[in-house]
């Protein structure tokens, strides 16, 4: 019996979840308590009450109790962990030419991943069908039951309406505007589904991994340029309509008449994105033989210190640095993360952005600022998607769904 965001898959009422039971599960999931005695001590509940709640969670295959070894008195203690049968999370990070997919357990660990070569301009029907097929196959190959997928999360390179679960007026994505992506995923997986902007999920993944003080601002430099902000409380800032972070369409100081996909001229994304750098060098993004030709060609040129490639990268760094300095003024982040294929090529981009930010922003905004590249690399958004799913799964309503399934 499952439901998604605002759209019920099964109308049966969900049971009430007590505060005590939720506390028990929270302690085990966080690794703060691993047996009944520790849970009773940390939660302040009677051991008999804790025992009943643990039995209920074990009985529903949410928790598993294992023999942990011999104690001093010879009685083997029993360790509580999330049950492998509790279910899985299926996530996808959709980009212009490819989609990264992964399966995670409810503890947030990626247990399998793969890459699906899809083109966004093929339209939502074709992309969602291919990605869903491959995700379900990946769940099976990982040894998990596709019927016990607890949540599906998809990252899209576009502004997203969270309430409706659809992209809103995305550039370069014909047919995607208003398409009910979350609804299609719910129907296919019979599980709750979420859709979010890729830079948002990249920021969330980096914030969870680093456990750094917030706010954390992530700038993704790919086909376009987008930003995601995770607040000090660990929440994604999306803005009133899901358009927060669409920073690639801010006009560059030296943009001149370069036409952007949005129809305006001089946008930063039209000058400093991965696609813009390839265009400057005359390198095609993809070929029939290699869907990621542009990524591979540019990486090889930079690795060989090809002067035009290095110069193009440094020019992009200068543009992105100006953008980053402005965002530092506006949001005063504690950490600034650069992600996307350009950030993975060399230190030129990172050092170039750092130089501009520290030169342009005032000391108050930069004295404790850390500027770095994505620590999770290309998997940042996948980890962010898993973290977003976990928040829903272990909410009061999510636990209630686990108890009736």
UniProtKB/TrEMBL annotation:
Pfam families: ROK
InterPro entries associated with the record: ATPase_NBD, ROK, WH-like_DNA-bd_sf, WH_DNA-bd_sf
Annotated family: Belongs to the ROK (NagC/XylR) family.
The name this protein goes by in its record: ROK family protein
Organism from which the protein derives: Streptomyces milbemycinicus
